[in-house]
Write a structure and sequence with these properties.
The complex is a heterodimer of chains A (142) and B (139). The radius of gyration of chain A is 17 Å and the shape is globular. Chain A has 142 residues and is mainly α. Chain A is built from six helices and no strands. In chain A, helix 2 packs across helix 3. Chain B has one domain (2-134). The relative contact order of chain B is 0.11. Classes of the chains: A mainly alpha (142), B mainly alpha (139). At the A-B interface, helix 1, helix 2, helix 3, helix 4 and helix 5 of A face helix 1, helix 2, helix 3, helix 4 and helix 5 of B.
C-alpha cells in the first residue's frame, strides 16, 4: 500500500518525457529501455558507447535525485526470491518478443500514435493487473 | 563523443524522473496495478506527464531534417499487430506485475536498492541474451 502522489508523479513523468524528446532531438532514437539494453547484448562494436552511457546516466539519476531528497531512495519488494527470477525471465522474454516495454511502447510509441504500441500497452497493463489480482487471491502478496 | 554524452544526459534525466516519481519502488508500481484493492494511481500521472511532454516534443523535433548529432531519425518501422507483439506484451505484463519492475526502474534501482533488483536484472539480461541467441537467424 503506497500513497497517491500526483504532483511528484507528474513532475517525474515530465522529466521522463524531456529525456525521450532529447533522445530523439540529439541522436534520433527512441528512449526505449528494453531495446537500448537488448541491443547492447552481443551488439556491434560501434553501436555500444551510446547505450552504455545511457545506462550509466540511468544509474546516476537516483544518486542525483537522492542528494536533494534522500527519502526518495526507497524500494520495498512485495515479492522476493524465486519471483524475482521468474519475473526477470518474463520481462526479458516478453520485451524481446514484443519489441518494447513501458518506455518504448508506453511512452514513445503512444506519443507517435503507433497502433502497435497502443495495443502492447493495453495488453501489458491488463496482464499486469490480472497478475497482481491473482497474487492477492492466492495469498502471494497480502 | 557528442553522442555518448547526449545519451548520458538522456539517461540521467530518465533516472531522475523515475526516482522523483518513485517508480523505482516496486511496491508503488505494484500498487498501481492493484486496482481492486489498494489502488495508487500515481503511475498513470507519470505516464500522462511523460506522454504529453513526448507528444508535444516529438511534434516539434520530428519536423526537423534530422537529429543534432546523428544522420537521421530512427523510428520503428514495424506496422503489423501480430501474435509476437501481443504475446510478448502479455508475458512482459505478467513479469511486471509479479515484482513491480520493468527494465528502466530495474536498472535505476541497482544504484541503491540492493540485491533483489540485481537478481531481477541478471535474470532479465540472461533471458534477453538467450532470446537473441535462439532467434539469431530471424533477427
Amino acid at each position: 500500500m503506497t500513497e497517491f502522489t500526483p504532483l511528484s508523479a507528474t513532475i517525474g513523468g515530465v522529466l521522463i518525457g524531456i529525456s525521450a524528446v532529447w533522445m530523439m532531438a540529439s541522436v534520433g532514437r527512441i528512449a526505449g529501455i528494453s531495446g537500448i539494453i537488448s541491443g547492447g547484448i552481443a551488439g556491434a562494436k560501434g553501436d555500444m558507447a551510446w547505450r552504455v552511457t545511457f545506462i550509466l546516466g540511468l544509474l546516476a539519476g537516483p544518486f542525483l535525485a537522492g542528494l536533494a531528497r534522500p527519502e526518495l531512495l526507497k524500494a520495498s519488494f512485495p515479492t522476493e526470491g524465486i519471483y524475482l527470477i521468474l519475473a526477470g525471465i518474463l520481462v526479458g522474454w516478453g520485451t524481446s518478443l514484443g519489441s518494447g516495454c513501458t518506455s518504448g511502447h508506453g511512452v514513445c510509441g503512444i506519443a507517435r500514435f503507433s497502433a502497435r504500441s497502443i495495443i502492447a500497452t493495453l495488453t501489458f497493463m491488463a496482464t499486469g493487473i490480472l497478475t497482481v489480482f491473482c497474487m492477492r487471491y492466492f495469498g502471494v502478496i497480502v | 563523443m557528442r553522442i555518448p554524452i547526449a545519451t548520458f544526459i538522456a539517461g540521467l534525466l530518465f533516472g531522475v524522473g523515475l526516482t522523483i516519481s518513485e517508480m523505482t519502488n516496486p511496491a508503488k508500481v505494484m500498487a498501481f496495478l492493484d486496482i481492486f484493492r489498494f489502488w495508487d494511481p500515481s503511475l498513470a500521472f507519470v505516464m500522462g506527464g511523460a506522454l504529453i511532454t513526448t507528444f508535444i516534443g516529438y511534434q516539434w523535433v520530428l519536423r526537423k531534417d534530422g537529429p543534432l548529432f546523428a544522420e537521421k531519425f530512427r523510428l520503428p518501422t514495424k506496422q503489423d499487430v501480430d501474435g509476437r507483439l501481443i504475446g510478448g506484451a502479455a508475458l512482459f505484463g505478467i513479469g511486471w506485475g509479479m515484482v513491480g519492475l520493468c527494465p528502466g526502474p530495474a536498472i535505476a534501482n541497482l544504484s541503491f536498492a540492493g540485491n533483489n533488483g540485481l537478481i531481477f536484472v541478471l535474470s532479465m539480461l540472461a533471458t534477453m541474451a538467450a532470446f537473441k541467441f535462439l532467434n539469431r537467424e530471424k533477427v
